[in-house]
Amino acid sequence: MESPDGVTSRLLTAEEVARILGLSEGTLKCWRVRRRRDGPPFVKLGSRPRGRVRYRLEDIMAYIEQGRRDVARLED
Question: What pLDDT shows up at residue 18?
Fold first, then answer.
C-alpha cells in the first residue's frame, strides 16, 4: 500500500499479527472490542460492522519495541 508521502506501508491481517506476536486472533479481537490499551494500534478499512481490520507493520514493530526490556537496566 502506498501512503500519501510515498512511503510504502505493509498492512498485516490479524492472523499474521497473531503469529508474529505469539497470540491468538481472539486475543487481538478482544483487545480491539474492549478498546484495551494493551494491544497494538489497528486500522479499520470499510464501513461498520463488517470493515476489515488491518495492522501496519511499523506499528507492530513499535509495539514489540515498547515491550522490550533491557536486563542490565532491570538489575540496577
Answer: 96
Domain ranges in the chain?
11-69
pTM over cut 0.85: no
Cα 68–chain centre separation: 15
Which residue bears the cell 495492522?
A: 55
12: phi then psi, degrees, rounded to nearest 5: -110, 150
Rounded to an integer, what distance in angstroms lies between the CA atom of residue 40 and that of residue 21?
A: 10
| Grid coordinates of 46 | 470499510
At 18-34, the pLDDT tens digits run 999 999 999 999 998 88
Characterize 23-40 residue by residue with b for buried, 16 or more Cβ atoms within 10 angstroms of its Cβ, and e for exposed. Answer: eeeebbeebeeeeeeebb
